[in-house]
Write a structure and sequence with these properties.
127 residues, mainly alpha, Helicase, Ruva Protein, domain 3, 5 helices, 54% helix, 0% strand, globular, metal-binding
């Protein structure tokens, strides 16, 4: 079994896959690498491809950090389900639930850093 790459390895893998993509000046491979713990080489290749797809869908000629953030969200949390309608009470309860996950994640030392907290439904999750 091949171990997952550390932060330096992830940055190097990202740089290899980014060679084929026109990048914006705001793209920081080291920052992206720090925000992708647990990603395999294949996950990182997928991240670059998804970011390029987001840029293309927006008729952009370069891929910026915004597209990388959107791609990371999609890979880590699943695709957004904007068609799902939530009542204000459901939004409130989901916010409490997700805040609980964040607090535990910030409190447990062995936990990966908290990346994002959201109530936007993604994949099979409500938030």
């Amino acid at each position: 079994m091949v171990p997952l790459p550390d932060v330096r390895g992830r940055e190097q893998i990202l740089r290899v896959h980014m060679r084929r993509v026109p990048l914006g000046d705001d793209v920081k491979p080291a920052l992206i690498a720090r925000g992708t713990p647990g990603f395999s080489g294949a996950d990182l290749a997928n991240l670059v491809n998804e970011a390029a797809l987001f840029a293309a869908r927006s008729n952009k000629r370069i891929v910026g950090m915004e597209e990388f953030e959107r791609a990371k969200d999609k890979i880590m949390m699943g695709a957004e389900r904007r068609s799902m309608v939530m009542t204000e009470e459901e939004k409130r309860m989901t916010a409490f639930h997700e805040a609980g996950h964040a607090i535990v994640g910030m409190t447990v030392p062995e936990h990966d850093p908290v990346y994002k907290v959201t109530i936007i439904p993604r994949g099979r999750a409500l938030g």
